[in-house]
Design goal:
alpha+beta, single chain, Alpha-Beta Plaits, four-stranded antiparallel β-sheet, globular, 9 helices, 3 domains
Length: 356
């Protein structure tokens, strides 16, 4: 497609559904839960439909699972939400950032009449996200489906320092004269993988241990490159925990905010340091069940080291009934063979890869 003179990728899904019966959000959630999807995709797709149902339910005054979509709209939502999330997994992209969201301006016509932009459900779904200028769009620039994908996929604004690796444009169905109706996606690596980083630490003696993992997850979501937690002895003989994290300088405030929000810490320490890193990249290796697993390659002076992503290994082991250590060992050897073939310039299994 070439919207407004720009060459882009455009995908169209044609169904045989007609304007027949409605399908409830609860039905769509059960369909996603029963589908042959990875746990990563399924969890986010179910969350997306629940958020969509809650927003539409608040607008129309009905329970979330009772919100109904026309048959065509239900198929569109399944393709957009499940397909969009699965697309990120296929590309090996699980950390997503977004710029401020343009919602458009003026009015939009929907099944229940003409409404101001953003539509009520879109406005609810955008709560907590940063809204940017309206841009050149007269009408709706962000739909409820687009808003809910942002909610379940993104970690907020991108880090301050990053380097583009690849970029692409995907066109929508409309082709206005004033602007290119296209969404741009940039695959990037952090510019601070080597060089200056910020170290951050805090000591906790009144946080229940089961809350440490949610704290760690929140810190990674905020941009931490690494998080370490270990037990320590504190004043008056109390057992506590030291929490330390490494991050790019531009992510320090976000990580600090996550620590203060998700722990009992009343303050923390931070300092800058220089770090040296080996060349690293993540490749996709085919597993025995037809799925792909992310494997991290590290190139050092003594050769290449490979480490399969543990969550992916566990998922393959669960689906195939094999032991996780057997899956990991097989993928480790396959990744090393693939890396050797790339270095030798020979044939290799086609996979996606991206540097970190």
């Amino acid at each position: 497609a070439e919207p407004n003179g720009h060459a882009t990728t455009h995908g169209a899904v044609h169904t045989h559904a007609h304007h027949g019966p409605h399908r409830h959000i609860g039905q769509l959630i059960r369909a996603v839960e029963a589908a042959d999807l990875s746990e990563w995709v399924r969890t986010r797709a179910v969350q997306a439909f629940r958020l969509l149902g809650e927003a539409e339910g608040r607008v129309h005054g009905v329970p979330a699972e009772d919100v109904s979509l026309h048959e065509v709209g239900a198929v569109d939502a399944l393709v957009d939400i499940v397909g969009g999330i699965e697309g990120f997994e296929v590309l090996g992209l699980r950390t997503v950032y977004n710029r401020p969201v343009a919602v458009g301006s003026g009015w939009v016509r929907a099944a229940h009449g003409v409404m101001a932009v953003p539509a009520p459900a879109t406005g609810l779904l955008l709560e907590g996200l940063q809204i940017g200028p309206d841009g050149p769009v007269t009408g709706e620039a962000t739909t409820p489906t687009g808003a809910v994908l942002l909610r379940v996929l993104t970690s907020g604004p991108p880090p301050d320092g990053w380097r583009p690796v690849r970029s692409s444009w995907g066109a929508g169905g409309r082709n206005p004269v004033e602007y290119a109706n296209a969404l741009r996606m940039i695959v990037a690596e952090r510019a601070s993988e080597a060089g200056e980083v910020v170290l951050m630490a805090t000591d906790l003696d009144d946080l229940s241990p089961e809350y440490l993992e949610p704290l760690r997850s929140a810190m990674f979501d905020a941009g931490a490159l690494d998080v370490q937690i270990w037990a320590t002895q504190m004043k008056k003989g109390r057992t506590g925990f030291r929490v330390e994290a490494t991050m790019a300088p531009g992510d320090a405030d976000r990580v600090a905010g996550a620590v203060l929000r998700h722990s009992t810490s009343a303050g923390l320490r931070r300092w800058r340091a220089e770090r040296t890193t080996l060349q690293r990249e993540t490749i996709e290796v085919e597993a025995g069940d037809g799925s792909t697993v992310r494997v991290k390659l590290v190139r050092g002076p003594d050769g290449v080291r490979a480490k399969p992503e543990f969550d992916d290994v566990v998922e393959v082991a669960r689906r195939t009934g094999r032991a996780a250590h057997e899956v990991a060992s097989e993928l480790h050897l396959q990744a090393l063979r693939q890396a050797d073939a790339r270095l030798a310039g020979g044939p290799e299994t086609p996979n996606t890869s991206h540097k970190e």
